Amino acid sequence: MIEINKLKSFEEDKQNIFQTFLASENDTNLLLTTAKKFLEIKNPEPTLTIKICEKIHKIYEEKEIQNKKINSIIQEEENWKLSISKELQNKHHDYKEELEKIEKNKQFYDFLPTSIKSNVLEYQRKMLDVSMLMVKSAYHIYNDSMIRLKTPKTQQQQQQQDKMDIDSNENEEAIDSKQLENDYLLTFNKVLNQAIKDILPSFSIEIAKFLKEKNLPMICTRVCKELAIKISNERKVERETLKKSDCGDLDQVTYQVIETCIGSIFDTISKLDQKVKLSPHLISDRELSDLTILKNGELLKEFIEFILPDYLQSPEGIIKIGQYLLSINQYNHVVLVAERGRIRLEKLKKEQLEKEQLQQKLQSCTKEIESIEKVSGYSDEKRGELIKLEKEFSVYKMYPTYYSMSKREFSKHNLDIATLRIKSILEMKDATKGILNIQSHLDDTLKTLLDPNHIYQLAVLLQKTEIDTALVYGERCQRFITDLEILREVRLPLTLRIKQLENEETTLRLDGRTISEEKKIELEQLLEKTQSLPEFPFFSELTNRNEYDHLNLQVAQMMITCVLEKKSKLSTSKDQSQKDRINQQVSALIIMCLEKFKDPKYLLELEKHLKLSREDKVVIQIANQIFNRCDEIENQRIERVLLEKKEKETIDELEKSKIIEQIKKLPTFPYYASLTIENQYDDTIYDAAEQLMSFLLDNISFIDEKLRKSKLFNIKNIEDEQLIKDREETEKLVTESLSNCLKFVRSPSLVCKFANALGAKRESLYLEISKHIHPIITEKHKQAMEIKQHQFLIETLNLELSDLSKMKKEMPESDIELLQSTTDRMKTIQFPYLEQWVRSSHYNSQLISNGIQLLLKNKQEYQSPKTSTISKNELTNLIKSNQENFIEQFKLLSQYLEDPKTFTEILTLLRVGNDFENVTEVGKLAFAKLKLFREHQNKVKELNEKKKLLVEERDQLNKQRRRLSTEKHLSLREITISEHLNSLLEPYYIANLDTLALIIGSVLIEANTCERSEFEIKASSKAFENQFKYISEQRKRINDTISQSIKLVVENINSIEDLLKFTNDLYSKKEYLLVLQVGQIIEASLEQKKNTIEHKENLLKEIKELQGKYLHSQNPKDREKIQAFIDQNQQEYDSITLEHTYEVNKDLTIQITKLMIESASIEDQGDILREQLILSFKNTTSPLDWDRIRNISNEEEWAETKKDLVIYIMKREENINSKIELLLKDLLFEEAIQIFPHPSSDNDEELDIQLNLLVSLYDAVDQHAFHLINGVIPIIQRFAKRCYIEWKYEKLDILYDSLQKRFPKEIVSIFTIAIDMMLVNILQSQYPLFLNMMKSMKNRLVATLGLDSLWEDFLAGFRKNYKSKKRLIQMISLIGDSVWQINVNPNSATGKQIAKRTLPQSSQSAHKKIKVSAPTPSLIGTPKKASAKKSVDEDIDEEFLDENEDNENEDNENENEEQEELEATDEE
């Protein structure tokens, strides 16, 4: 007892202390912090936390009451102020003092702190924090109690005081655990009710979410119901006070409440289920009972029935709830929600109708008041009624926006609800495995829908499971569409006429006029008719005539799919009557579609829809309808366009009216087609044809796959005979359909596309299409060119007419008649795809090229391992068929292919495929086409030349204002038209044929050589070890083929340059023998061209000679004969056209000989190599070639060859230095002396080369043939004179170095003659230069040779001969004196010349001497007798003397005077 009293004492002390704390005036923040700490401590005190929270609640409520009083005072004054402002408008009283007081009060209120002003959101947020803490504390007590209740100790300690404030007197009695649970729950609910009592629903929802987290769905549901009630009350307050609730969007809050409640239920079910599975021993009876109740669905059903639609009134919210339940597979509840949503929509319609009626009353009352006041009547009664109505109508301002939604929005919500309902019942039926009868639900749903689009959307949902119902929906949809279109046809004309009259009335009223009485009566009658008609549905547009065309198509596709699905389900059935009914149903649907749909695009969509149906006859029927309909539209378009064009061009009114009548009688042109676009449905026709053929081929593949599986797996339920029969029938359909498709696919580009599409699936179809289109292309191209010819004729005639009009002349009547008749004829011609047919040749190329590629690709696939799944017999048949098709394709190639580029592509393909036999044949065909192109180009060239002559003649006659003769004029016209036609031909008609031949030839030769290489590899194998005859025959055949190919290439290449490129190509491919073969042909051609050039040059020489004779002849008869020869030669000269100049011809010869020399060296062809070296030498005169010829020749051959080459060299006029060099190398000194050139006077470098050659010649003759030395001396004299006269004496040093060894006196002789010439016109300013020359000679004779006497004799003779030159003699006498230095004045003109002419020593020895080989008996001829030495005077070159005379005449007068003065000085 002592212990118990102590415990009670401790508890009482705690309570006293807590009460003292609670009674004291503490801040709310301190109280809230303390309450949180009581809950967070180690031994929580949730009861104390609840009491503190209750205390905080009271404080907040008292404070909010005070704040609301202040706000009410402020609001009252604001309302009074508003009423005063209204009174001021009526000017009944002046409230100046009152307004001033109100303004002062307002300033005072603004000065007050915000803490005493009411802030609802802040207040609710604080209250929510406190309430949430209360709920958490209560849940802590409830949860702790339930845990203790489950433990054994709990039942033994029931006598202890309970923490939930149960009366201590009742503890003595035994309490049932279930009763305890209820008591605990009741206590928790009391705290919960107290927590949410003063909180707005938008904030209270947080408490509901807390309950959801703690898996308390029952309590959460109850709280959500209470929140829904509070929200409903808030909505009523809104409408009464006309003020928005502080909760915000009430419908959104309601939706969140419902979503939280449903989420709580299903989250708890999920967690309890998991707990049952994982830990069944831990679950309590109460949890099992809750799980049973929750799964039963009664709780959710009750909640939905309670809250929908009275509390959640938004249709969108109801639909979202249904969608949420559908997502969690609660189909029963979805049906319930859908039904509640439909009820809500019906109620909303009524409320909307009431609103409209009230609005109409308002409008009528307002109009009555206006009419009364207009006549100054008494309107107070009506105005009171108006105020009453306005007050009633003002409530609708607080209604949500869905109260004003349109009929379309209503219909959309209705569709969403119906969709939810159908999806749910379909899922319910699927869950019961088809036992559940849902037909009544589907029928009821259909009754609620009016919009055809909505009906179709639901039908799509049903078509997979409820086929019959989907068909019913589809029929209803089509019936509605038909009724709508009938109503539209009646109502639309009336509506349009009414609008027209009303617009006219409005326009006239603006001008102060009115419409006529007749139109007024008509307008009234139209309005009466319109009102008597049913109202046009809101979901359709009256003016959109074709609004439901696409929907009709979709419905038809859906219905066909349903029927075909039923048919597929009956495929294994033996009930033939059902099958017949289904087939009849399919036929009826197709016939209906073909009658209803006239737009080819819709028919094409229908055909696409049936792609996987296996209904081949149906698809063929639709495709044929597309073809016929497109053809019909195009014919209608052409007929209408021609008539309209004719009507525009017609001037006669009577004729014009007849044409207009004809146009009116024409069928109405479809709205979906265009009058201005030709062949606008070509793509549609192509798509229909391609889909049809693909469909049939896929069916055949399907049957083949069935047959293959039947054989492979021995399937007994597959009837092979029936499948084979079906396949044969389908093959017939393929043939018939292809023929029919080709009748309508007329564009050549689309036919090619069609062939490619089908060829990918079956190569035989590609071949059939090619056979069909190739002749058509040829014929149509011919016809198109004829039409173009007529067009060009009209253009040409119009141009001639224009030119004649400018010249004020008239066109001949025949030409006018021709122009008129041709123009009229062209107007009647309709030729589709004219431009495509004009340039249709490339379609032939495209078809043939693609066909070859396709066949080769298939051939490769048949030979690949991928075809192992096909049986051997099938594979053999495929290969055989491929070969036959290739032969047929090759026939087409030989007949229709023209494009060289395509030939090249095919040659490459065949070469890659190692089809060498066909490569040769295709190459021959290609070159045959090139010959035709060359003939065409030659004809065009002839026509151009002829046109040029005619145009020149015409221009000359035009200047004389005359015309060409009729014959020539017609000829010029024909040529002009031919030019226009030629411009339409393919580019390869005017291409460089040599280049094309080169390309084709390269590919052809490459293929031939590849065949030879492969054969040689095979021949070296063991398989051909002893087959010598076969190998020989094959080698001969291949070599003959290569020779023929080479011949073809060379025959078709006229250009030497291209032939040379061809040779280079062969050389790069290491075909050296072929290089030699082609090179010989090129050399022969070059030789012929060279002869032609020489012949033309000879003709020119003869002409000049004859012209000279003609001028010198005085006999008229001789002159006539000479003139005849001149004319004959001139004509022949003009007729010769040179393709190359001599230099170009020579360059080409050098190039080909180089290739042939290298090829002959590689192939060890000695004779050819020697011939080519000789030819190369004759063109280059290269010492290297000369040496190579000598090296590969024996003595006899070289002697003969050398003789010929020397003769050739002697005849040549160019490059004489190299000739001499060659002659010197082989000791042919006599020939070298004979052709040695005169010294060069223009080029110092050339003069140095010549001097070097002269030194080499002199040294060689001196060493090897001294008996010829007298022939070299005159040459030396000529060069010495040239150097001295040009003051270039220093260049003679290297020559004198050789000459002085044997002939020093000859040097003095040459020097003496040169001085005689130089002193004739020497100037005084040139004396220093002259003295230098004398000094150089003195040094050579005295210092070098030691011939003092020779120099003295020369000096004595000089003094004797030139006595008058005393000053010069005096200067010469001083040469050698050490004190006397002779310098050239650098500033003088002569000094400049000396400085310029004097070369450095290195320049004089820059050219090396020619090495001469040792003489041999076989190379040195018999020496000739030496000729007598000629005198120096006789060897003086005439040109040299003439030049001296010219120099004397060109001296200016000042120099002559200076010379005379010097001579006078010398004489003195």
Task: State the end-to-end CA separation.
Answer: 184 Å
Determine Rg (CA atoms, Å).
61 Å
Report the mean per-residue pLDDT as an integer. Answer: 80
Helix tally equals 58
- What is the strand tally? 0
Would you summarize the structure shown here?
By secondary structure, this protein is an all-alpha fold. It contains 58 helices and no strands. The N and C termini lie far apart (184 Å).
Explain how this protein is built.
- With 1468 residues, the chain is mostly helical.
- It is built from 58 helices and no strands.
- Helix 32 (841-862) packs antiparallel against helix 33 (872-896).
- The model is unreliable at 152-175, 1377-1406 and 1414-1468 (pLDDT under 50).
Write the layout of secondary structure elements.
Layout: H1 2-23, H2 28-40, H3 46-90, H4 96-111, H5 120-150, H6 152-156, H7 177-196, H8 201-213, H9 217-241, H10 250-278, H11 285-296, H12 298-307, H13 315-327, H14 331-374, H15 380-394, H16 407-431, H17 439-447, H18 452-462, H19 467-510, H20 517-532, H21 549-569, H22 576-596, H23 600-609, H24 616-649, H25 653-665, H26 682-713, H27 720-744, H28 748-759, H29 763-806, H30 813-828, H31 834-838, H32 841-862, H33 872-896, H34 900-912, H35 916-959, H36 966-983, H37 993-1019, H38 1028-1051, H39 1056-1068, H40 1072-1112, H41 1116-1135, H42 1142-1163, H43 1166-1180, H44 1183-1192, H45 1195-1211, H46 1216-1225, H47 1229-1235, H48 1244-1264, H49 1269-1285, H50 1293-1299, H51 1304-1318, H52 1327-1344, H53 1348-1361, H54 1366-1373, H55 1389-1397, H56 1401-1404, H57 1438-1450, H58 1453-1467
Helix pairs in contact: 2-3, 3-4, 3-5, 5-7, 5-8, 8-9, 8-10, 9-10, 9-12, 10-11, 10-13, 12-14, 13-14, 13-16, 14-15, 14-16, 16-17, 16-18, 18-19, 18-21, 19-20, 19-21, 21-22, 21-23, 23-24, 23-26, 24-25, 24-26, 24-27, 26-27, 26-28, 28-29, 28-32, 29-30, 29-32, 29-33, 29-36, 32-33, 32-34, 34-35, ...
